[in-house]
Every structure is written in C-alpha cells, then in structure tokens.
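Need residues for this backbone.
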C-alpha cells in the first residue's frame, strides 16, 4: 500500500509584538520630524500613543512594530541623535 503524500505544514507569519518606548526630546530637537524620520530610515511602523510637547521638552510614548533588529537600530539611531529612549513597563493581568 502506498503512503499518502503529506502536505507541507502551513506556516503562519506572526506579526511582531509592538513595543512601547518613552522618548524625551531636548529643546533643540522639538521641531525636528524625528518620528517621521524613524519610519523612513528603518523598517518599523510608528504609532504615537501619547505625547506632551512644550518649548522646553517633548515627551512621546511611541509604539514601534517590526523586526527586533530594526527596532534596536532605530533606538540606537534616536539615542545617537540626542533623544532619550526608555521602555514602557506595561503590567499584564493573567487571565
């Protein structure tokens, strides 16, 4: 008896889990389109979740979605250009 051919298992492409970061801009960078530049320079999706901007400081909660190495490169680039980047700690309630 011949064995039936198995179909290759379907692979699901999971989209990466978005990561959130607090960005703090010094006054000299307030008017620069930094988040737009991140989306142009790196293969990441940017999503502003919250922000507060004054003449003295800009504070932005930015969600980045993409491959880990692209997100890491984007963070490194932002920090190199004077933006302080800190991860947002989000508590998860197990259900």
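Answer:
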């Amino acid at each position: 008896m011949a064995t039936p051919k198995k179909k290759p298992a379907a692979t699901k492409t999971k989209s990466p889990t978005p990561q959130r970061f607090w960005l703090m801009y010094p006054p000299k960078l307030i008017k620069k389109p930094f988040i737009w530049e991140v989306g142009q320079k790196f293969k990441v999706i940017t999503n502003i979740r919250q922000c507060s901007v004054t003449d003295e400081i800009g504070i932005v909660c930015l969600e980045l979605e993409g491959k880990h190495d692209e997100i890491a490169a984007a963070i490194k680039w932002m920090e190199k250009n004077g933006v302080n980047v800190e991860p947002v700690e989000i508590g998860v309630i197990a259900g």
